[in-house]
Amino acid sequence: MVIFLSLLLCAALIVLLTTALKTRRIARELQDAVRLNRCMLVNEPSSMLKRLGFDGLIKETNGLIDRYRGNADVESGHPKQLEAMLGSIQEAVIIFNDEHVIEFVNDSAQRLFQRARALKGARLETALRSASLLDFLSAYRGDRSLKQQEVSVERQGEVLWFEVSCAEVRGVSAQDAKSTLLVLHDITRLKSLEVVRRDFVANVSHELRTPLTIIKGFAETLVEDHATLPVETRARFLDKIVNNAQRLHVLVEDLLELSRLESQSEQIQPSVQSLQQLLEEMLEPYRLRLNPEVQVLKLDFDERVGEFAFDRFRIQQVFDNLIENGFRYAPDFTLLAVSVRYDDANDLIQCTVADDGPGIPAKDVPHIFERFYRVDKGRSRDSGGTGLGLSIIKHIVQQHGGGVSVESEAGQGAAFHFSLPYVQSQPGE
Questions:
Q1: pLDDT of 129-164, one tens digit each?
Q2: Which residues have C-beta within 8 Å of that of residue 203, sequence separation ≥ 6?
Q3: In this structure, are residues 142 and 129 in contact, taking their beta carbons and an 8 Å threshold?
Q4: Residues 6 or more apart from 271 whose CB is under 8 A from it?
Q5: What pLDDT band is residue 342 in, cutting at 50, 70 and 90?
Q6: With contact defined as beta carbons under 8 Å apart, do 278 and 312 qualify?
Q7: Residue 353: enclosing H or E segment and its boundaries?
Q8: What is the per-residue DSSP string for 147-163?
Q9: Could you tell me where the DSSP H helices lie in 303-388?
Q10: Crossing angle (nearest 10°) for helices 2-36 and 55-87
Q11: What is residue 336's three-state secondary structure?
Q12: What is the pLDDT of residues 13-33, one digit of tens each?
């Protein structure tokens, strides 16, 4: 009996010891699973786990780990999603913390402000040199309802204009921190167009005011003093009125022409034809205006240039304007040369109209194709110039897909160049 009880006790102790070891091992495996953030693989029979009380605990723990890993994947994906979303927009986007240290920039901001060095980690004041932007950010801290504002940013000697807006977002570097998201929409081109429009209105007003004032003054004098004015004076006044009315007419026509070209409401109509034939026909009337003893009008045409596509009316307008300028501003020239060359390297037709007249001062050359720009304002008005001819030329050539330039020095003549694509087929074919 004693031996039986001893054996029973030993068996019980062995069972208890085995159960304890299994319990300890399962608890250690469960602890490792939680620490390593991975589900626990169960190797024990479900009946044993149930008997030990681990079946429900293991199931709940594995479920908790799965949910945690799912949330962690979502959280880790947020920066990548943010980068992909902000990186695909054209506006410059910058996120910075309270110390103005940049935490994130999209590709547009990186290209716009710093191509050689990464902006992330730099201070905002270093990356963007703009007092107006700092003033906007300071005002935003005091008034969160502040929506947007126009600011200027200096970059490599030029001034860029942006419409900026910002918002407070959760910190990129630290979850419990706050950062500021800054969005900059580039409006530099719009600002430039606004300046051009303002200058254009001012120039047009000035150009119109002068002949209108003259017409008004002489007309009022004729009305008020008609009975006392000598016939010769009245004829001279009427001549002034007619001349200035003609000047107004030419100016308005040039303005309408320039407006049509700039708005592209009147597109060019190219067709395959001979430029050489066009030039030979249009140069003949100009030769009749030459002083044959001292003046020469020369055409130098590259024989490699065959028929190609261009708008006959518009290109004749270009040559007429350039040749007329030679007669108007260099009347004492001895040589007026028109040349056409084939640029096989770029597949372009290079056209030049050059004279050996007084030339253009160096300070005026960069502005010669601007609207209303005149080298000699008084002389240009006396000769009937509106200051729009070269601007019209530039737009016609650009609509053909070419470019314009000028070479000149004071006293050394002037050479106006323009290029045309050498397209030998009808557009649309």
A1: 888 888 888 888 777 666 778 888 887 778 888 888
A2: 371, 372, 387
A3: no
A4: 309, 310, 311, 312, 426
A5: very high
A6: yes
A7: strand 348-355
A8: -EEEEEEEETTEEEEEE
A9: 312-329, 377-382
A10: 10
A11: strand
A12: 665 666 666 666 666 666 666
Residues 403 and 419: beta-carbon distance below 8 Å? yes
Token output for 407: 């070479």
Integer angstrom CA distances of residue 245 from 183, 206, 249, 377, 389: 53, 15, 6, 19, 19
Beta partners for 33? none
Burial class (CB in 10 A: 0-12, 13-18, 19+), 344: exposed
Which position has the token pair 């970059």?
155
| 3-class SS shares of the chain: helix, strand, coil, % to 5 | 50, 20, 30
Q: How far apart are the first and last CA of the chain?
A: 116
Q: List, for residues 38-85, the tens digit of each pLDDT value.
A: 665 555 555 555 555 556 666 667 677 667 666 655 555 455 555 555
CA distance 393 to 357: 21
The tokens 């962690």 sit on which residue? 72
| Residues 93-103: b if buried by 16+ CB within 10 A, e if exposed | bbbbbeeeebb
How does DSSP assign 126-140, residue by residue?
HH-B-HHHHHHHHHH
Domains delineated in the chain: 2-82 (no CATH), 89-186 (3.30.450.20), 192-263 (1.10.287.130), 271-421 (3.30.565.10)
Task: Give the integer Cα–Cα distance in Å for 306 and 234.
Answer: 57
Strand-strand pairing, 414-421 and 404-408: antiparallel
Residue 92 forms beta bridges with which residues? Answer: 184
What is the rounded (10 degree) CA torsion for 28, 31, 37, 38? 40
Who has greater pLDDT, 342 or 122?
Answer: 342
In the DSSP assignment, the letter for residue 115 is: S
